[in-house]
# Entry
Amino acid sequence: MLTTECDSGGRACRFVAKPNSSLNGKGKVIFFAAVLLLSLVIAIRFWLLGAWMVLPMVLLEMVVLATAFYLVDRASRDSETIDITENELQVTKRCKSDIREWHFQPYWVQVNLRKDRINWYPTHLDLRSHGKSIEIGTCLTDEEREELSEGLKRGLEILKPAKRI
# Structure
């Protein structure tokens, strides 16, 4: 999911890329509770019929499902923020508890969207300047990566001084 914010003069822009999350926290809890309730009702019915091994297996499945929901929720908090100002382009990547930052001079930054020759693999979006290169937008779809590439190019072009003839 890509969000873009620019000031009215276009002198500063912020791009935020996050993994798409179709359910919010409350929706995940409701879904898990519904699956848990349905599974327990079925498991208790089997337990009453004498198939007692079904109940521990259902409980084990619910622990695995809860763990999966927790890990997916934690991964959905990851983000990439790209801030463009007149003096600096700053990339901040948040992955779990790790926060990494890169700083570039906006006049020299090159935005490079690399496409696969046979359209088999996803595109790659790189920022390059003075021998440093960083891949951004890894959690985005190809269309969102193209949108981010165009937005970055527009934002950087506005900041560059007018070309003299």
